[in-house]
What we know:
- The chain is mostly helical.
- It folds into two domains: about 1-30; about 30-108, no CATH class.
- About 75% of the residues lie in helices and about 5% in strands.
- Strands 1-2 form a two-stranded antiparallel sheet.
- Strand 1 and strand 2 form a beta hairpin.
- Helix 4 (about 70-85) runs antiparallel to helix 5 (about 90-105).
- The longest helix has 25 residues, at about 5-25.
- The chain is extended and about 50 Å long.
- The two termini are about 35 Å apart.
- About 5% of the residues are buried.
- The model has no long low-confidence stretch (mean pLDDT about 90).
Amino acid sequence: MNAYILITILLCGLVTWLSRVIPFAVIKNMTVPGWLINFLSFVPVAIMTAIFVENLLVYHAGHWPTFNLPNIYASLPAILAGVLTKSLLAVVITGVAAMALLRFVGLG
């Protein structure tokens, strides 16, 4: 591997890591108001919803998006696993297994 590429990958990793660690280091000794904590509690749900919905649709330039049926079919048991277990790990494993099964039978 080219040294330039390796250095670029390492620096990108460092920047990503620092952008995740620095906010915690800065806020560690501060008192955060309750309303801000309440507001920030919705951020993970909003991000996951945006990622989820984006993967259920297929973009067509100049037209309405269509549904990505294999992803919708695989998401149904994953949603059920989430409702029943409230475990992110169970959701991920169920979704991956459902997509693998769909691809195995030729629907994905």
